[in-house]
Write a structure and sequence with these properties.
Layout lengths: L1 E2 L14 H12 L5 E2 L4 E5 L6 E5 L6 H12 L7 E10 L3 E4 L8 H10 L5 E8 L6 H5 L8 H21 L1 H8 L14
Parallel strand pairs: 1-5, 5-7
Antiparallel strand pairs: 2-3, 3-4, 6-7
Length: 192
Protein backbone atom coordinates (compact mmCIF):
# COMPACT_ATOMS: atom_id res chain seq x y z
CA UNK A 1 0.00 0.00 0.00
CA UNK A 2 1.56 3.26 -1.17
CA UNK A 3 0.52 6.71 -0.05
CA UNK A 4 1.57 9.67 -2.16
CA UNK A 5 2.71 13.01 -0.83
CA UNK A 6 5.68 15.32 -0.43
CA UNK A 7 8.35 14.80 2.25
CA UNK A 8 9.15 17.45 4.83
CA UNK A 9 7.41 19.23 7.68
CA UNK A 10 6.31 22.12 5.45
CA UNK A 11 4.03 19.74 3.53
CA UNK A 12 2.47 17.94 6.51
CA UNK A 13 -1.30 18.26 6.52
CA UNK A 14 -1.52 19.63 2.98
CA UNK A 15 -4.09 18.42 0.49
CA UNK A 16 -1.37 16.89 -1.70
CA UNK A 17 -0.33 14.72 1.26
CA UNK A 18 -3.75 13.08 1.68
CA UNK A 19 -2.23 9.76 0.53
CA UNK A 20 0.47 9.95 3.22
CA UNK A 21 -2.23 10.70 5.78
CA UNK A 22 -4.20 7.56 4.87
CA UNK A 23 -1.20 5.20 5.11
CA UNK A 24 -0.28 6.87 8.41
CA UNK A 25 -3.82 6.08 9.60
CA UNK A 26 -3.48 2.45 8.46
CA UNK A 27 -0.13 2.21 10.28
CA UNK A 28 -1.75 3.56 13.46
CA UNK A 29 -4.68 1.12 13.19
CA UNK A 30 -2.33 -1.85 12.66
CA UNK A 31 0.27 -0.61 15.23
CA UNK A 32 2.99 -0.35 12.60
CA UNK A 33 5.91 2.10 12.50
CA UNK A 34 7.68 3.61 9.52
CA UNK A 35 11.44 3.39 9.08
CA UNK A 36 13.79 4.30 6.22
CA UNK A 37 13.66 1.75 3.42
CA UNK A 38 16.47 0.55 1.14
CA UNK A 39 15.66 3.27 -1.38
CA UNK A 40 13.91 6.61 -1.67
CA UNK A 41 11.05 5.69 0.62
CA UNK A 42 9.89 5.01 4.16
CA UNK A 43 8.37 1.60 4.79
CA UNK A 44 6.46 -0.31 7.43
CA UNK A 45 5.76 -4.05 7.49
CA UNK A 46 3.36 -5.86 9.78
CA UNK A 47 4.55 -8.90 11.73
CA UNK A 48 2.73 -11.37 9.47
CA UNK A 49 4.30 -9.94 6.32
CA UNK A 50 0.88 -9.54 4.70
CA UNK A 51 0.92 -5.75 4.78
CA UNK A 52 3.66 -3.44 3.49
CA UNK A 53 3.15 0.32 3.69
CA UNK A 54 5.28 2.82 1.79
CA UNK A 55 5.71 6.59 1.53
CA UNK A 56 8.08 7.91 -1.16
CA UNK A 57 10.72 10.39 0.02
CA UNK A 58 10.97 11.79 -3.50
CA UNK A 59 8.72 14.70 -4.23
CA UNK A 60 5.31 13.90 -5.72
CA UNK A 61 6.34 14.24 -9.36
CA UNK A 62 9.09 11.59 -8.94
CA UNK A 63 7.03 9.05 -6.94
CA UNK A 64 7.56 6.41 -9.61
CA UNK A 65 11.29 6.18 -8.84
CA UNK A 66 10.59 5.13 -5.25
CA UNK A 67 7.73 2.80 -6.18
CA UNK A 68 9.91 1.05 -8.75
CA UNK A 69 12.68 0.59 -6.14
CA UNK A 70 10.21 -0.91 -3.66
CA UNK A 71 8.66 -3.22 -6.27
CA UNK A 72 12.08 -4.46 -7.40
CA UNK A 73 13.24 -5.00 -3.80
CA UNK A 74 10.23 -7.12 -2.81
CA UNK A 75 9.37 -8.60 -6.22
CA UNK A 76 5.60 -8.31 -6.01
CA UNK A 77 3.43 -7.83 -9.11
CA UNK A 78 1.91 -4.40 -9.78
CA UNK A 79 -1.55 -5.98 -9.34
CA UNK A 80 -0.77 -6.43 -5.61
CA UNK A 81 -0.23 -2.68 -5.17
CA UNK A 82 -2.66 -0.04 -4.05
CA UNK A 83 -1.72 3.62 -4.49
CA UNK A 84 -3.58 6.26 -2.47
CA UNK A 85 -3.60 9.89 -3.58
CA UNK A 86 -5.47 13.21 -3.72
CA UNK A 87 -7.65 14.04 -6.72
CA UNK A 88 -8.77 17.54 -7.78
CA UNK A 89 -11.44 16.04 -10.05
CA UNK A 90 -13.44 14.54 -7.18
CA UNK A 91 -15.61 16.44 -4.69
CA UNK A 92 -14.02 17.05 -1.30
CA UNK A 93 -14.54 14.08 1.01
CA UNK A 94 -15.30 11.52 -1.69
CA UNK A 95 -13.43 8.22 -2.00
CA UNK A 96 -13.14 6.29 -5.29
CA UNK A 97 -11.50 2.88 -5.54
CA UNK A 98 -10.40 1.49 -8.90
CA UNK A 99 -8.67 -1.68 -10.01
CA UNK A 100 -6.65 0.10 -12.71
CA UNK A 101 -6.71 3.20 -14.89
CA UNK A 102 -4.90 6.22 -16.23
CA UNK A 103 -3.13 8.95 -14.27
CA UNK A 104 -5.96 11.40 -14.86
CA UNK A 105 -3.48 14.31 -14.91
CA UNK A 106 -2.00 13.51 -11.49
CA UNK A 107 1.79 13.91 -11.78
CA UNK A 108 2.61 11.38 -9.06
CA UNK A 109 0.52 8.76 -10.82
CA UNK A 110 2.04 9.68 -14.19
CA UNK A 111 5.48 9.01 -12.70
CA UNK A 112 4.43 5.63 -11.28
CA UNK A 113 2.80 4.51 -14.53
CA UNK A 114 5.88 5.61 -16.47
CA UNK A 115 8.42 3.86 -14.20
CA UNK A 116 6.38 0.66 -13.90
CA UNK A 117 5.30 0.79 -17.54
CA UNK A 118 1.86 -0.28 -16.33
CA UNK A 119 -1.54 1.06 -15.26
CA UNK A 120 -2.48 -2.33 -13.81
CA UNK A 121 -2.52 -1.52 -10.11
CA UNK A 122 -5.30 -0.55 -7.73
CA UNK A 123 -5.80 2.95 -6.43
CA UNK A 124 -7.83 5.01 -4.02
CA UNK A 125 -8.56 8.56 -5.16
CA UNK A 126 -9.37 11.06 -2.41
CA UNK A 127 -11.48 14.05 -3.45
CA UNK A 128 -10.09 17.47 -2.61
CA UNK A 129 -12.01 19.66 -5.10
CA UNK A 130 -13.14 23.01 -3.77
CA UNK A 131 -15.05 25.63 -5.76
CA UNK A 132 -13.06 28.41 -4.08
CA UNK A 133 -9.62 27.49 -5.43
CA UNK A 134 -7.91 29.87 -7.83
CA UNK A 135 -4.55 28.20 -8.56
CA UNK A 136 -4.28 24.40 -8.58
CA UNK A 137 -0.62 24.28 -7.47
CA UNK A 138 -1.10 26.64 -4.52
CA UNK A 139 -4.34 24.88 -3.64
CA UNK A 140 -2.94 21.33 -3.46
CA UNK A 141 0.08 22.54 -1.46
CA UNK A 142 -2.12 24.36 1.07
CA UNK A 143 -3.50 22.89 4.28
CA UNK A 144 -7.12 21.95 4.78
CA UNK A 145 -9.30 24.68 6.25
CA UNK A 146 -10.32 24.45 9.90
CA UNK A 147 -13.97 23.85 8.96
CA UNK A 148 -12.91 20.86 6.81
CA UNK A 149 -10.96 18.97 9.47
CA UNK A 150 -13.90 16.89 10.75
CA UNK A 151 -14.60 15.74 7.19
CA UNK A 152 -10.89 15.06 6.63
CA UNK A 153 -10.95 12.75 9.67
CA UNK A 154 -14.01 10.89 8.38
CA UNK A 155 -12.44 10.53 4.93
CA UNK A 156 -9.16 9.24 6.41
CA UNK A 157 -10.98 6.58 8.42
CA UNK A 158 -13.19 5.58 5.49
CA UNK A 159 -10.26 5.34 3.03
CA UNK A 160 -8.10 3.42 5.53
CA UNK A 161 -10.91 0.88 6.01
CA UNK A 162 -11.27 0.54 2.22
CA UNK A 163 -7.52 0.05 1.82
CA UNK A 164 -7.43 -2.67 4.49
CA UNK A 165 -10.42 -4.34 2.85
CA UNK A 166 -8.33 -4.50 -0.36
CA UNK A 167 -5.39 -6.07 1.49
CA UNK A 168 -7.40 -8.76 3.26
CA UNK A 169 -10.34 -9.40 0.91
CA UNK A 170 -9.32 -8.14 -2.54
CA UNK A 171 -10.14 -5.28 -4.85
CA UNK A 172 -13.68 -6.38 -5.78
CA UNK A 173 -14.82 -6.54 -2.17
CA UNK A 174 -13.12 -3.23 -1.45
CA UNK A 175 -14.82 -1.54 -4.41
CA UNK A 176 -18.24 -3.02 -3.64
CA UNK A 177 -18.11 -2.04 0.01
CA UNK A 178 -16.34 1.35 -0.09
CA UNK A 179 -16.59 2.70 -3.63
CA UNK A 180 -19.16 5.43 -3.28
CA UNK A 181 -19.30 8.72 -5.11
CA UNK A 182 -19.49 10.44 -1.76
CA UNK A 183 -18.70 9.26 1.72
CA UNK A 184 -22.03 8.62 3.47
CA UNK A 185 -20.83 10.84 6.33
CA UNK A 186 -19.89 13.68 3.99
CA UNK A 187 -21.15 17.17 4.69
CA UNK A 188 -22.96 19.21 2.08
CA UNK A 189 -20.76 21.82 0.41
CA UNK A 190 -22.98 24.48 2.00
CA UNK A 191 -21.82 23.24 5.44
CA UNK A 192 -18.16 23.94 4.66
Amino acid sequence: MIGLGNPGAEYEGTRHNFGFMVVDRVAKLRRMEFKPGKGKYWESKDKSGSLLLMKPTTFMNESGLAVKELKERYGFPASNMMVIYDDLDLPFGSVRIRERGSAGGHHGMESIIYHLNSEDFSRIRLGIDDDNRSDDVDFVLSRFEEVQLDEVEKTLSYAAEGALEFIYNGINTSMNKYNKRENKNMMNKEDI
